Amino acid sequence: MAQVLITEDQMKQLIENGRRTAAGDQIDPEPVVKLFMPGTGWTWLFTEVDPENPDIAFGLATDGIEDPEYGYTSISEITSVKNRMGLGVERDEWFTPKGPLSEYAKRDAASFTL
User: Fold this and answer.
1) How far apart are CA 110 and CA 114, in angstroms?
2) DSSP 8-state symbol, 109
3) DSSP per-residue string spanning 21-62
4) Lower CB density within 10 Å: C or N end of the chain?
5) Mind listing the pLDDT tens digit for each residue in 26-53?
6) d(CA 13, CA 10)
7) Is residue 13 within 8 Å of 20, Cβ to Cβ?
């Protein structure tokens, strides 16, 4: 059985955060979901999605070498990619945020998700 990448509850929170941003609220929420590509350094921490297009997520990303960067990502695009072993993106089911997204942005790639 395939893993659900973003749970229904997580998507509700991502959409709510996206609505707040679209309304002009200045927010710095904790990451809602952490996705990663096994066998690589690629990691994404998402805080919101575009309420009009929930395929577009906002958060931080790193390749494990370069420091994390803010940006928008197509969820369907990153989930369509496979690594050299044929594995796709997974959700870190044990991820618990430890502060707002801005705190993760201050970390280097090696300590990005601590």
Assistant:
1) 9
2) G
3) HHTT----PPPSEEEE-TTS--EEEEEEEETTEEEEEEEEEE
4) N
5) 999 999 999 999 999 999 999 999 999 9
6) 5
7) no
The tally of CA atoms less than 13 A away on the side-chain side of residue 72 is 7
Quote the CA–CA distance of 44 and 42 in Å, as a whole number.
7
Distance CA 47, CA 55 (A): 13
The rounded distance, in Å, linking the Cα atoms of 90 and 78 is 10
Task: Identify the segments of the chain with pLDDT beneath 50.
Answer: 1
Sheet holding 53-62, edge to edge: 69-74, 53-62, 43-50, 33-36, 90-91
Whose tokens are 């959409």? That residue is 15
